[in-house]
Structures are given as C-alpha cells and as structure tokens.
Design goal:
This protein has 14 helices and 17 strands. It has 397 residues and is of the alpha/beta class. It has two domains: 170 residues, Rossmann fold (3-Layer(aba) Sandwich), CATH 3.40.50; 203 residues, Phosphoglycerate kinase, N-terminal domain (Rossmann fold, 3-Layer(aba) Sandwich), CATH 3.40.50. A six-stranded parallel β-sheet has the order 5-6-4-1-7-8, with helices on both faces. A six-stranded parallel β-sheet has the order 11-10-9-15-16-17, with helices on both faces. α4 packs across α5. The radius of gyration is 23 Å and the shape is elongated. The protein starts with 14 loop residues before the first strand and ends in a 5-residue tail after the last helix. The structure holds adenosine-5'-diphosphate (ADP) and magnesium ion. Adenosine-5'-diphosphate binds next to β14 and α12.
C-alpha cells in the first residue's frame, strides 16, 4: 500500500518532526561533503513554505559510550543548514529536556530548529538504536506530524523513526524517501522488461539476499567484481590470488544451478600480481589465470558482451562496482557499465549501494541514471525485497 507523502498532509501551523539523514562525513570538526544536507533541502523548504513549525533531527556516526560523543555534535551541521536555507536554524544541544521543549514551544510557523544527535541517546543504554519505547513516545510528544526523509536508516527500527511513528497522530514520507520508494520499489515490484540486474562488489556473502532476489525477479543477472571469483572457483577454474570466499563455494554452486541460463559471469579479466594501480596488467580469459595473479577488473570481451545483454533492457538495477574502481587502471569495467547504461534510451536505471553510487558519481555519470540511491545498507535490503521498518511505520493512503 502506498505511504502518505508531503502532498497528503496539511502542515500549516503544525509542529512537524522531520527525521533527516545528516550523517555527513566530517574531518577535524569540518563537514567534508554536504550532499546529504543539500538533498534534504526540498522537503524542509516545502514544509517551511507551507507554514509548518519544523523540528528536524538526525544521527551522526555511531555512539556506544559517552566518549564517543566527542566531535559528534550536530551544531556544525545546523550552522551549515542555516546557510543553505538562508535562515536561522535554532540548535538545541540536547536530545530531551526543558531547553528542548521550550525551543519547540517557541517556534512559529515558517521557523526551523534542530536538536542534538539522536544517537547521543545510545551512550547510556542504546535507547535510540534499540527503539526504547519511552524515547519514541517522548519525541513524538513534541510534535503533531512526523515526516521521515532518512532513507539511509530506513532498514533500522530506531526510536527516531519507528518509535516516533508509533506514537504520533500522522506520519508521511518526505521527498527523498518518496523517490527511493518510487524508483527502487517500482524496479523491484513492477519492472518493465527485460529487467537486468548487475551485481558486483567484493563479497558474495554481503550480497546473498540480493543475488537470490534478482535471480527470481530479473531476466538476466550479470556478475562482476570480487564476487566473480568465488563463482569461478565453484566452477573449477584457477583464480590465482583473486579475492575469494572459500566458505561460500557451495553456496555459489547452488546459486549457479538456480540461475542457470540467467546468471552471467565474466569471461575475461585484467590481472596483476600486486594490488596496486601501477602493477603491470595482463588481460586474460577465465581459463588462463596464473597462480600468482589476481583479477582486479573485468576485461574488454566481458564488457562487450555485457553491453549486448544490456542493450534491450527496460529496467536495470546495479549494485556493486565490477572492478577496483578506486584505482584508475581498474575503473574501466565500472565506467564501461556506466556508459552502457547511459546509452540506454527509454530505460529506468537505478544504482544502489554506497560504493556503487560513489563510483558512478566520481566517474562523472551522476546525471545519467534515473536514480542513484542515497542509502547503502537500506538500498541493499530494499533490493532484497525486505520490508523496511522506516517505511512500514508510516501512514498509508
Ligand atoms: P556497494 O557499497 O556498492 O554495495 P561493495 O561494498 O559490495 O559495493 O563493493 C565495493 C568494493 O568492491 C569496492 O571498494 C571495490 O574496490 C571492490 N572490488 C570490486 N572488484 C574487486 C576485485 N576484483 N577485487 C577486489 N575488490 C574488488
Ligand atoms: Mg560498500
């Protein structure tokens, strides 16, 4: 059932609690990439324009002890948000208590405030991350409506999403969450066919659920990256020093049998003797690995064949780089896939996964996809077809 979105709620003069994902990368107390703040602006701006009193909050990093709180305050983020919105953002350096309640009380329509890192509540007993019912109820008591726009934590049932939603009158998805639901959800549930999935990354074990999900849902599944070698070893090939999970070889064999006719593996590779961008490269077929070589990217024949397999696709979902794209000499496979997808007319192309998104963006293809997911773990679980608690907790239409 579709969840409520911003167009379905009336926020005028209401206090709206907005869970955003401001888990930005920081170095020495400075924000190094404010993309997550920028991405949250449309939802916040819309609520402010519509006359809401906006209380927004987020987690930042992981907190287990009181010491972990050092350097994890959201005050810097609140300041940056104020600059981005070009208005004052009142920051309350607490997650509960009188100062917070008074600041919420003092808000007028069209004003915005932020409170402290929700995971500060994890320092003494993991109240946020374990969805302590008293905490969710308390936060819910501060507002009238809950808007969730934090897709990155939607696969977790925390007090700041599920806990609040359980105790508040009305709840809805923000624009960011709505886009994730539309693009990943639709690709998974109602793909236009042919539907092709591309799966890479290091480990089979990280991706078992996704591989199985796509073997069921997709018409073709193209494998690349480090996980290829576990499959190849299962087929009896020499893979030299390539990354492999020996305890997943039986599983790989099962998946190969389940995916017969659908599952495609690379047929050639870029091999080196060292995990280094400067190491000499040899391109070789899959039955031609030497013992001291490792595969760090797919080869040109594979790329050409994958290009053909993709050429009639109407839906493509991609998770996991097909090579060690962080080193320019092994980014060609991943870039080739980006190009093949960019060339598709009339196809929905979706990228999920932290490193895959980073690869597409750093290679300059950010605008060429229908959707690049903002979630890592959350997009993986969504692609597996698992229900996400941060979405399931919201009101449906
Ligand atoms: P995502 O974050 O998109 O889900 P993963 O975390 O599963 O992706 O995998 C990304 C990593 O996989 C990258 O750091 C990349 O260098 C690595 N990788 C890809 N191909 C290989 C390979 N052949 N050998 C070792 N590592 C690889
Ligand atoms: Mg990753």
């Amino acid at each position: 059932m579709p969840v409520k979105t911003l167009k379905d709620i009336d926020v005028k003069n209401k206090t709206v609690l907005v869970r955003v994902d401001f888990n930005v990368p920081m170095e020495n107390g400075e924000i190094t990439d404010d993309n997550r703040i920028v991405q949250a602006l449309p939802t916040l701006q819309k609520l402010l324009d519509d006359g809401a009193k906006v209380v927004c909050f987020s987690h930042l990093g992981r907190i287990k002890t009181r010491e972990d709180k050092k350097g994890k305050s959201l005050d810097v983020v609140a300041r940056r948000l104020g600059e981005a919105l070009n208005r004052e953002v009142v920051f309350v350096p607490h997650t509960r208590g009188q100062a917070l309640e008074q600041a919420v009380e003092a808000l007028r329509p069209g004003e915005i405030m932020m409170f402290e890192n929700t995971r500060f509540e994890d320092a003494d007993g993991r109240k946020e991350s374990k969805n302590d019912p008293e905490l969710g109820k308390y936060w819910a008591s501060l507002g009238d409506i809950f808007v969730n726009d934090a897709f990155g934590t939607a696969h977790r049932a925390h007090a700041s999403n599920v806990g609040i939603a359980a105790h508040i009158e009305e709840s809805a998805a923000g624009y960011l969450l709505e886009r994730e639901i539309k693009h990943i959800g639709d690709a998974i549930e109602h793909p236009k066919r042919p539907f092709v999935a591309i799966l890479g990354g290091i480990k089979v074990s990280d991706k078992i659920g996704v591989i199985r999900s796509f073997l069921q849902r997709a018409d073709k599944v193209l494998i690349g990256g480090g996980m290829s070698y576990t499959f190849m070893k299962a087929q009896g090939f020499e893979i030299g020093e390539s990354v492999v999970e020996d305890d997943k070889i039986d599983l790989a064999r099962t998946l190969l049998a389940e995916g017969e006719g659908k599952l495609h593996l690379p047929e050639d590779f870029k091999l080196t003797k060292e995990f280094s961008n400067d190491a000499p490269i040899r391109i070789a077929a899959r039955d031609d690995f030497r013992r001291d070589e490792m595969g760090l990217d797919i080869g040109p024949k594979t790329l050409a064949r994958y290009g053909e397999l993709l050429s009639d696709a109407k839906t493509v979902v991609w998770n996991g780089p097909v090579g060690v794209f962080e080193m320019p000499n092994f980014a060609q496979g991943t870039e080739g896939i980006c190009k093949a997808l960019a060339a598709l007319e009339d196809a929905t192309t979706v990228i999920g996964g932290g490193d895959s998104a980073a690869a597409a963006i750093s290679l300059g293809y950010a605008d060429q996809f229908t959707h690049i997911s903002t979630g890592g773990g959350a997009s993986l679980e969504f692609m597996e077809g698992k229900p996400l608690p941060g979405i399931g907790c919201l009101d449906t239409l």
